[in-house]
Write a structure and sequence with these properties.
With 141 residues, the chain is α/β, with parallel strands linked by helices. It has helices at residues 16-32, 55-77, 91-101, 124-132; strands at 7-11, 35-42, 82-88, 106-110, 137-140. The chain has a five-stranded parallel β-sheet with strand order 3-2-1-4-5, sandwiched between helices.
């Protein structure tokens, strides 16, 4: 018997590969009547609440907002519920932590992200998620 897939986590960074992952997740979600959560990980330490937000963080948060808006629209056009979340830290570790702590059934991730050095190899984030996650991972090329 196949496991029930009701919650899908999709890491998004704005790259074409991450949106191919979203498109695949949408197809899976339609077949399983699942919902999708998009996660954008800022590769920085979360500032203390008393610290002012840096201009870099503002720029990254604006970028994340634009990506999530696009992903939400694409999901809605396909009849899929989409929620978003922004996290801080090492992207691979945060994706695995979120997926496990929030009881996701599947992670759908693009094979490579935005980093130019990462384009030469199998993406370091997707590689980390694949090897460290205890839940199923689908990597989309």
């Amino acid at each position: 018997m196949l496991p029930k897939i009701k919650k899908i986590l999709v890491p998004l960074d704005g790259s074409p590969n991450s949106f191919r992952g979203l498109d695949t997740a949408i197809n899976v979600a339609r077949q399983c009547q699942a919902m999708i959560t998009g996660v954008y990980v800022l590769g920085m330490v979360k500032p203390q609440t008393s610290e002012p937000i840096s201009s870099l963080e503002k720029m990254l948060l604006k970028h994340a907002e634009q990506i999530m808006k696009k992903a939400k629209l694409r999901s809605a056009q396909n009849g899929i519920l989409f929620s978003d979340r922004v996290s801080y830290g090492d992207s691979g570790k945060r994706i695995v932590d979120i997926a496990e702590k929030k009881n996701f059934d599947l992670i759908v991730i693009g094979s490579r992200g935005m980093g130019s050095a990462k384009e030469m190899f199998f993406g370091s984030t997707s590689n980390h998620v694949l090897h460290k996650s205890t839940i199923p991972v689908m990597i989309v090329k």
